[in-house]
Amino acid sequence: MITIQNLTKIYKIGDSTVIALDNVNLEIKKGEFLAITGPSGSGKSTLLHMMAGVDIPTSGNVFIEGKNINKLQPSEQAIFRRRHIGMIYQSFNLIPTLTVEENIILPLMLDGKKIDRAMLMSLLELLGLSERRKHLPNQLSGGQQQRVAIGRGLMSKPSLILADEPTGNLDSENTEEVLTLLRAANENYDQTIIMVSHDENVSSIAKRRIFMKDGHIALDKVV
Fold first, then answer.
1. Spatial separation of the C-alpha atoms in residues 91 and 145, rounded to whole Å
2. Which residues, if any, are the signal sequence (predicted)?
């Protein structure tokens, strides 16, 4: 599913050099639920962004389903993300002028694909958003907004879901709801999920956990 080879990312900040990723190698199989943890500055979010193709490595390669995403042009990367990757951010990244329903189907609309209305209605029901589907993001709670973001990530049936601190802005009740949805996506749809979290309680739901330190993978275990 994902092969990461000798991945290095170096940032220049003034006269300083920061090595965010240092020769990282990693294999992730289809259907895995992987949590990436580690202290602030360990490289965990940088690694996730490299898999999403939203950041460019200094050296090394990322292969997703056999395709080297680093060799794609920016427009090709955008299309690849829409068709193969569901992104879930801590900040939700919803379009404020679009309704719940419109935010969820946005990637499909951008790709010119026909909307599966039956799946949309089923997904809204699963997310507990059926009664809110015509609401705008500012009319929703934080937990509801994150559920919309998850719905957007699931609607296009991506083989890979990348979640960057998906529960970081949520209370304990909404955190549990979001984790339940991610677990269901993994178990029911066989979607590969890679989640970055600094919270050990959140990362404990994953079946495989990676701990990063100083740009390296310090621990890789299956539980």
1. 9
2. none
Identify each DSSP E strand in the chain by its residue range: 2-13, 16-28, 33-37, 59-64, 67-68, 85-89, 160-164, 192-196, 208-213, 216-222
Contacts 24+ apart (CB under 8 A), 63-67: 63/2, 63/3, 63/4, 63/5, 64/1, 64/2, 64/160, 65/1, 65/159
Enumerate residues 6+ apart whose C-beta is below 8 A from 21.
Answer: 7, 8, 9, 43, 46, 47, 50, 57, 60, 215
pLDDT score, position 199? 86
Q: For residues 92 and 195, give the distance between their C-alpha atoms in angstroms, rounded to a whole number.
A: 15
pTM over 0.70: yes
- Token pair 């979001």 in the structure block, residue: 178
| CA gap 204, 223 in Å, rounded | 9
Name the superfamily (CATH) of residues 30-57+70-222.
P-loop containing nucleotide triphosphate hydrolases (3.40.50.300)
- 11-22 tens-digit pLDDT: 988 888 999 999
How many residues would you count in the chain?
Answer: 223
pLDDT tens-digit readout, 112-169: 889 999 989 988 988 889 999 999 999 998 888 988 988 888 888 888 999 988 888 7
Q: How far is CA 112 from CA 79, 88, 106, 131, 186, in A?
A: 11, 21, 10, 27, 26
C-alpha–C-alpha distance, residues 52 and 134, integer Å: 30
Cα Rg for the chain, rounded, in angstroms? 17
